[in-house]
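Thread: quick sanity check before group meeting

JM: Hey all, I'm pulling together slides for Thursday and realized we never actually wrote out the predicted structure for the chain we discussed last week. Dropping the sequence here so it's in one place. If anyone has concerns about the input, flag it before I start.
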Amino acid sequence: MTAPALPFSPDLIDDVLRRALAEDVGAGDVTTLALVPADQAGTAVAYAKEAGVLAGNAIAARVFTLLDSAVHATPLCADGDVLTPGARFLRVEGPLRTILIGERVTLNILRHLSGIATLTRAFVDAVADTPAQIVDTRKTTPGLRLFEKYAVRVGGGQNHRIGLFDGVLIKDNHIAACGSVSNAVKKARASVHHLLKIEIEAKTMEQVAEALEAGADGILLDNMSPDTMAQAVAIVGGRAFTEASGNITLESVRDAARSGVDLISVGMLTHSAPALDISLDIEG
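JM (edit): ok, ran it. Output follows.
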């Protein structure tokens, strides 16, 4: 699977990495500065210790060149590649001090993003023979949302809203504030521009019917059983897109897809993906 283009600028990458390095290095790596001479050069290779989908390789490589332009980081695999145990995917050459100082930030990024891509790929594969698309949510790590949503796309998933600014999603608290599903849709329609779709959460079949009557573009079926979702999809009849949401797991995602929904949003892709086991070793 070909990796998507990075959906953010090099400046954003550098900003995130500089903050991560400042957090980890602080005033200096006292261990490495005490043990490794400034003129000692070396080579290190990053490799997988378990099977998974690689994500964040180019981002991680940038850690070393931010620390020292004399370091050369060469990706050996591309994001989206499936790694087998022992697969080498990044070579780093240059001052050994720099390699050791940047090691932990690099591995943290690679482990986290590759874990997200790996879990996403598992969900995508589970519904591969259905029309349903796997999408992420806003349940992300503060400051890392764009990185994490990129990793979801590397794994074959799609992105839901990036933030509160690029789509209308009316949730239960919005409905409570407006008094009804109909009022919420009406107010949203009167306020946002015509290019923004309006999606609304529905917990009951009555709310599904009300949302459809109000002209919602999409209906989020919240914590419904597969059978109830199938009934909702039949009622909607293609007049709006439908999204399954709420405690979707690898064990339940296929049943959700069989209901006929268009989208399945999975919060655990970003908030609970286990880190992929990855290491960086000095050669020689």
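AS: nice. The mean pLDDT is 96. DSSP finds eleven helices and twelve strands in the chain.
JM: adding both to the slides.
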